[in-house]
Amino acid sequence: MSTNQNNSDNKFMRLAFKKASEHLGSTKENPSVGCIIVKNGSIVSSGVTSINGRPHAEINALKSNKNSFASTLYTTLEPCVHYGKTSPCINQILKKKISRVCYPILDCDKRTHNKAESILKKNKIKVKIGILKKKLKFFIKVIFCHKKITSCLFLMLKLLFPKIIFL
Ligand SMILES: [Zn+2]
Questions:
Q1: Which residues lie closer than 8 Å to 80 by C-beta, 6 or more apart?
Q2: Which tens digits make up the pLDDT trace of 55-104?
Q3: CATH number of the domain where residue 104 is located
Q4: Are 120 and 91 spatial neighbours (Cβ–Cβ below 8 Å)?
Q5: Residues near ion ligand 1 (Cβ under 5 Å)
Q6: Which domain holds residue 13?
């Protein structure tokens, strides 16, 4: 992987986190996830988990973009593969012919945990896991692995967020 590719991956993942911050604390039991779709080096669409937790960020980003063929999808959390109240994001990713999917960490939810990669690869989609993981470790852990974000924690994240994201 070239340095250029790594630099642009980092840049777009930061933007996905920025997107995620928009609904931080407003997505009930689901984490606020951000998603950016990039084609030929430009952002063509973005999405965030809806207020109250549904639809997920990936669905929101994919539905507002008509032609996702051969695009890269950056999402701040492993895309879900399980059927809940809605069908999984991974189905839409496959349907829209995304060619590459990047996410920093695996979902803590056991129904999805570490399952997306093999499904994506089986469908000839490139996968990159771990972008910004080290740099944003604390932040990621708090927003994606805590079921309940207290108001105090929420306030702290809001204040810290701009600093963390642009390190
Ligand atoms: Zn999902």
A1: 56, 88, 89, 90, 107, 109, 111, 112, 116
A2: 999 999 999 877 888 999 999 999 999 987 788 999 999 999 999 999 99
A3: 3.40.140.10
A4: no
A5: 56, 80, 89
A6: 3-165
The residues assigned a catalytic role are 58
- The pLDDT of residue 21 is 83
Instruction: Give the pair of three-digit tokens for residue 139.
Output: 């932040």
Region of poorest pLDDT, from 21-35, 66-80, 82-96, 135-149: 135-149
What's the domain count of the chain? 1
Q: Can you tell me the distance from the alpha carbon of 121 to that of 167, in angstroms, rounded to the nearest whole number?
A: 32
Cα 18 to ligand 1 centre (Å): 18
